[in-house]
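Appendix B. Extra example for self-study. Work through it before the problem class; the solution is given directly after the inputs so you can check yourself.
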Amino acid sequence: GAGVSQSPSNKVTEKGKDVELRCDPISGHTALYWYRQSLGQGLEFLIYFQGNSAPDKSGLPSDRFSAERTGGSVSTLTIQRTQQEDSAVYLCASSLAENNEQFFGPGTRLTVL
Amino acid sequence: DQQVKQNSPSLSVQEGRISILNCDYTNSMFDYFLWYKKYPAEGPTFLISISSIKDKNEDGRFTVFLNKSAKHLSLHIVPSQPGDSAVYFCAASGTSGTYKYIFGTGTRLKVLA
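Solution. Structure tokens for the complete assembly:
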């Protein structure tokens, strides 16, 4: 079956612009996660959605970052007023339920000039 | 503050020999550990996991060892194959939120034919 998909695969933007990154989880997966990997760093947890529960936003680095998940499926990560330090690969993952194996998408490489 | 550390950024091994990838952690509350493999331009894929109640888990050519007293885990690949060449991430989670995987920075394994 189809895996986790993310779009765009690459995004180049200018400092100060807003960007939206999209994630399509595996159908039927109730849990969805966003991570980012900056150069030379491990994957950093950003936000977690589980069903209709309030998301765990504890990993979001600043209030410029927000995410939503519509209808319990597709998720959008929005970064407002991008900064150069936001440049990273943003990875989305989904799992059948909490505590199950996380399946990752290919990521979106964001470059802020 | 890196709670999960992979101190070897790269490793080269001859085909057919054993590959040993190491991971150290600092948080004694971690009770579940995973290894993910990542090929270029793809998301990480789950490889193997181990719970803190065990000290070894084996799956085919892959074995993970956990030494809780040393806060150390290792991934053994025997025999190594060229297709194993990838970046390997270890990850840990604990009771503060089992879905919050804390990842290491990765080790790039190159298996030489």
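Self-check: The radius of gyration of chain A is 13 Å. If your reasoning did not lead you there, revisit section 3.
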